[in-house]
Specification:
Radius of gyration: 29 Å
Helix content: 10-25%
CATH topology of the largest domain: Jelly Rolls
Strand content: 35-45%
Shape: elongated
Oligomer: single chain
Length: 621
């Protein structure tokens, strides 16, 4: 399979550049040569260097400590017709089959780069002319400019896992396009012909790697390892070199480990299936990940739309408890900028298959073969790389994850322009936000619909949850000051401004602990709470780091009540058994991260339970 934008005659005019391992300046030089219109193959490995006889000319980048690297030695043994040495550091030129004088990048990298470009052009002009594709010529690009770009692309995020800012997003099970994700294509360690089993769109290229990563992948794939991140030092954000990430190539995959600053992702980057290629606008990507060390909050991530000039990207990450999120990350430090979607898998696991289809701004994500969300986000149009990594914000000891069976598949471009895609996504999102959601038995693993309920363990909520035939039993332990809450994120965590919720609550076994709802809850669990007690007493309160009672009263006592809460702007209304009880005005909390069903509002000396049933969530205009 030929690289896109090339013909079979390209190889006869290709320039091969060989260098030692992890030579970023050599990578930047390759990009500079390409910007100058030259067809360049970067030989970082022996596998690629062995093709030196096919190249029109060869360049080797020499340093005192890496000039004997296997890739360089392989090129030199071929003794190509044109072999030019480039000195990246001060050193004596070693003996070799050189066909021209050494070119130095030490004192003036930009001048040395232009000298090399001219030498290669002069040599190519002496060769017979062959048919080739035209290459775009740009203004000269300096080594320093390219190194700056490359380093920033390798930055990785740090910071909290979620944020409450919202962006245009649509989550639909079918997605905008008719493509289906397949995982049965062939090819190992190389670009291979696409399988004919994918309907509608025929892939151009499929690249697979059983052991992904730089020096692990035996094929032609271009890989990088995250090498810096931003952390807060003396209340200032500072970019630092990542000294905690290590990569080990194993027979069953690439083991990525982190030994400090555990809330930062250690990450691998896939730049393309070979040195000629870049990431397509429409593609599928998949990787298998197993968390091998870390606590319950350890998670693995799959990143796309990686920003060329910073830490920005769109990312899917999932932890061992099945809690997954899709976020847009900040380009300054990689902290979440907008949460696009959130959900919870039906079972916890340490092994996941993460997959994505990217088609311009539209992204469809899968976990373990199950489509979890489709989102549309125009923040970052870049497709500079695909990344995957591991972090654990609560870890105190080293963490690691094993990545294997990576697949990248190029698909046909979509015919819809970005404004059309966004308009379609907006219309579908608005339609979805007009429908009520009903769960006869609410709660995690009780509700079998599309509602997203958070496991108590993931929310670090005390107590227990049991699914009964006629309701969800939520139990708060005795002598515990914390409220037991079951959090609801609707379909994707993106709530309308105004809404109404209702449920039947059996508090006959709640003792004096009482039960009810929390609305307009934020990520710090500040919320408005509406509770009812077995003796008929009720209360509305603003719950922050302390309780601010807003209204209270008493109705006729009985064991089961139907509570209805309406959140409409600054108005918060409570109805019980169809009777309007109280409306209060308060504007402390204006948006909603999640809702909660709760029990244990008042501390009890014994365990207290409430049974919730016939839950309804209704968006309001």
């Amino acid at each position: 399979m030929q690289a896109q934008g090339s013909t079979s005659s390209d190889r006869s005019s290709a320039i091969m550049v060989a260098a030692g391992p992890q030579d970023e300046q050599a990578r930047a030089l390759v990009q500079a040569l390409r910007q100058a219109g030259l067809n360049v193959l970067f030989a970082e490995t022996v596998h690629i260097a062995a093709r030196a006889s096919e190249a029109a000319a060869c360049v080797v980048v020499l340093r005192p400590d890496t000039w004997k690297a296997q890739a360089i030695a392989t090129v030199m043994r071929v003794k190509p017709d044109c072999l030019l040495p480039v000195l990246a550091e001060p050193m004596e030129l070693p003996r070799g089959p050189w066909t021209g004088p050494a070119i130095s990048l030490v004192e003036n990298a930009a001048q040395g780069e232009q000298q090399l470009i001219q030498a290669l052009r002069d040599y190519l002009a002496t060769r017979p002319q062959v048919e080739s594709v035209s290459h775009h010529k740009a203004d000269p690009v300096t080594i320093d400019m390219l190194l700056a770009r490359k380093r920033m692309r390798r930055r990785r995020r740090a910071g909290p896992i979620i944020t409450m800012l919202l962006l245009l997003v649509i989550v639909v099970l079918g997605g905008l396009l008719g493509y289906r994700y397949y995982s049965s294509h062939t090819g190992k360690g190389a670009a291979a012909s696409a399988s004919a089993s994918l309907p509608i769109a025929t892939p151009h290229i499929v690249y697979t790697s059983a052991t992904p990563g730089q020096y692990c992948d035996s094929g032609s794939g271009e890989w990088g390892l995250g090498n810096r991140y931003v952390k807060t030092v003396n209340k200032q954000k500072v970019e630092v070199i990542d000294k905690y990430t290590t990569l080990q190539c194993q027979s069953n995959g690439a083991l990525l480990s982190r030994s400090g600053d555990y809330g930062v992702y250690s990450e691998l980057f896939f730049d393309g299936f070979d040195a000629y290629s870049s990431i397509a606008q429409h593609y599928l990507a998949q990787v298998e990940a197993t968390i091998t060390a870390g606590d319950a909050q350890a998670d693995v991530a799959l990143d796309v739309h990686i920003h060329n000039d910073g830490y920005g990207r769109d990312s899917l990450h999932v932890n061992t408890l099945g809690h997954w999120e899709v976020n847009t990350d900040n380009t300054i430090d990689g902290s979440p900028l907008n949460r696009l979607a959130i959900g919870f898998l039906p079972a916890s696991s340490k092994t996941y298959t993460l997959a994505v289809e990217v088609d311009g701004p539209t992204m469809t994500f899968w976990l373990n073969g199950q489509q979890v969300t489709t989102v549309t986000d125009t923040t970052y149009p870049d497709n500079s790389a695909i990344g995957f990594g591991v972090d654990d914000p609560t870890a105190r000891t080293p963490i690691s994850a094993l990545f294997s069976n990576f697949k990248y598949e190029v698909l046909s471009p979509n015919t819809l322009a970005t404004p059309q895609v966004v308009a379609t996504a907006t219309a579908q999102a608005q339609a979805a936000m007009q429908k009520s959601y009903i769960a006869h038995v609410p709660g995690y693993d009780c509700d079998k619909g599309a509602g997203q309920w958070q496991p108590l363990l993931d929310a670090d909520s005390p107590g227990s949850l049991h699914c009964l035939p006629d309701g969800m039993k939520l139990t708060a332990p005795g002598k515990v000051k914390s409220i037991t809450e079951e959090n609801f994120y609707w379909l994707n965590g993106n709530f309308p401004q105004n809404y109404k919720i209702s449920a039947k609550i059996d508090v006959s076994n709640a003792a004096s602990a009482c039960a009810g709802f929390a609305t307009r809850a934020d990520m710090d669990d500040n919320s408005y709470v509406f509770i009812i007690c077995p003796d008929g007493s009720w209360e509305i309160a603003l719950l922050t780091n302390k309780v601010h009672s807003l209204a209270r009263g008493t109705i006729y006592a009985h064991g089961t009540y139907t509570l209805t809460i309406t959140a409409n702007g600054s108005s918060q209304s409570l109805s019980i058994d169809g009777q309007s009880i109280k409306t209060i005005q308060d504007s402390h909390l204006k948006s909603t991260d999640h809702l909660s069903l709760l029990v244990g509002y008042y501390q009890s000396s014994q365990a207290a339970s409430a049974i919730f049933s016939d839950f309804t969530f209704t968006p309001l205009a």
